[in-house]
Amino acid sequence: MGDMGRLYATKLNAGGYRVVVCDKPESFERLAAELEGSGIEVLKDGHAVSRLADFIVYSVEAAAINAVVKQYGPSTKIGATVAGQTSVKAPEKDAFDKYLPADVDVVSVHSLHGPSVTTEGQPLIIIHHRGPQEKVTMVEEIFRSFKSRYVYLSYEEHDEVTANTQAVTHAAFLSMGMAWKNGSNYPWEETKWVSGIEVVKVNITLRIYAAKWHVYAGLAILNPAAQRQIQQYARSTTELMKLMLGGHRDELSRRVWAAREAVFGWAPNEDPVHDEDGGRRPILLSEDILDQFSLGEHDKKRDDQPNSHLSLLAMVDCWAALNIHPFEHLEVAGTPVFMLWIGVAEYLFRSRERLAAAIDAGLADRVFRADDLEFTIAARGWGECVSFGNFDLYERRFLDTASKWQQSVSSVGRVNVPRNATPARRDPGPPVNPHRRRRRTRRLRACARSAFTRPTGDSDRMGAWLARIGTGHVALSARRLPLTTAGFFAPRFEGASKMGTKMIKTIQESQQRSN
């Protein structure tokens, strides 16, 4: 049972439905033992649950959906409604059309958030593919307990929107993680990435690499729109980096300011000011919000080191090149990570002073030059990997980077804790002596070792079911209305999977207070 399958099973069971689940046949006894006493019933395989359920959700990776539906789809109960929880809908649609009986309806779903994020207020896409309108109403009622925001799209619209809100975002953070890994200089080991925008980069990179590789591989490789965007992101990164290395100030400035106007609608000589009586409020009201989260001690008396923010410049340049308007999709079906990342981009591009400083840093400053070079190489590598359509290569690149982060990352909890939640400092007194500094270093190293150490509690035992993603089946059923879901489970790192959640919540609360 996968992360999202378990989330669905738990939420629907709590909502008063009878829930039945299944995994791969060889995992039956273990799954039954894990869920004993939970109120969730475990059946032996997908055939058993398909014959029982009135509403079936296939929660498997996009690359496996065809094989799983081919195996269990013909057993679907007459008159049942089928959905899929895949991140890419084109393969799901083809599988349903090909293998489901004609007397079965299809109303698919997709929760645009991870299992560690609350479902309340998050977008839940509903796709009415075939069957009467009453089945849509039924699905709405089933998910009422989620308190999600329903978004109604077609299969094709879903893949376009998810590509526009996730493809480039994932490519940016995957590239950052690989760049830091290849450069062997992790953010918590230096003072270049202490607060503000830098914290967002590190926070979300950790969150991405703490998840399962197939979540991102399916979207990147199986969604044609996502492929185009990832390729363009690699081109934008490379071309901007060449302009920086060549010292082509006029061309670099022209391109960056043109992208600003194309994506955000602000003229080069315009410093937008929020209008309280109308217009769109900035996502990040101030960098002080981000400064509640830190990777180290931030000396406000010292100016931050200039950074080209190449990852952000390339993202906006990519959107401009593809004529993508991200705020439209943010309102429709933006994910928490996308909301935060576009908020950071908006924060950088909103101020002419900050954007000009980024351009100057890219041309003249050498502090981040090696990091920008590693980032460019990583972005091109991910672009080539996606163009090959090779899941094995994607998995190797992802897991190799993730394993290095697991070995080197400092305590994830320390990254997320607001400063005002830590004990107030007394008078600093005399400088710290070398012995105390060494003890602090040892403590930080201990944090690094413990950050990805599995807890022994029940919450993590679920994550130890499968060492490798398979094509297992999971099912749900209901007291009033039987339900089914299919999926599989891979190990996850409990702490890192929550990266950024507190930061996102803090930003949302700040926006609510300002309204």
Secondary structure layout:
Layout (H helix, E strand, L loop, with lengths): L2 H12 L4 E3 L6 H7 L5 E3 L3 H7 L2 E4 L6 H8 L8 E4 L4 H11 L5 E7 L11 E8 L2 H10 L6 E4 L2 H29 L13 H13 L3 H10 L1 H23 L2 H16 L22 H4 L19 H12 L4 H8 L2 H15 L1 H13 L4 H20 L2 H18 L3 H5 L17 H17 L7 H4 L21 E4 L14 H14 L1
Parallel strand pairs: 1-2, 3-4, 3-8, 4-5, 6-7
Antiparallel strand pairs: 5-6
Helix pairs in contact: 4-5, 7-8, 7-10, 7-13, 7-14, 7-17, 7-18, 8-15, 9-10, 9-18, 10-13, 10-16, 10-17, 11-13, 11-16
Describe this structure in words.
The strands form two sheets. A six-stranded mixed β-sheet has the order 7-6-5-4-3-8, with helices on both faces. It is an alpha/beta fold. The protein has 22 helices and eight strands. It has helices at 3-14, 28-34, 46-52, 65-72, 89-99, 133-142, 155-183, 197-209, 213-222, 224-246, 249-264, 287-290, 310-321, 326-333, 336-350, 352-364, 369-388, 391-408, 412-416, 434-450, 458-461, 501-514; strands spanning 19-21, 40-42, 55-58, 81-84, 105-111, 123-130, 149-152, 483-486. It has two domains: 3-152 and 463-492, NAD(P)-binding Rossmann-like Domain (Rossmann fold); 158-271 and 280-409, no CATH class. The two termini are 41 Å apart. One of its GO terms (biological process) is tyrosine biosynthetic process. Residues 1-274 form the Prephenate/arogenate dehydrogenase domain.
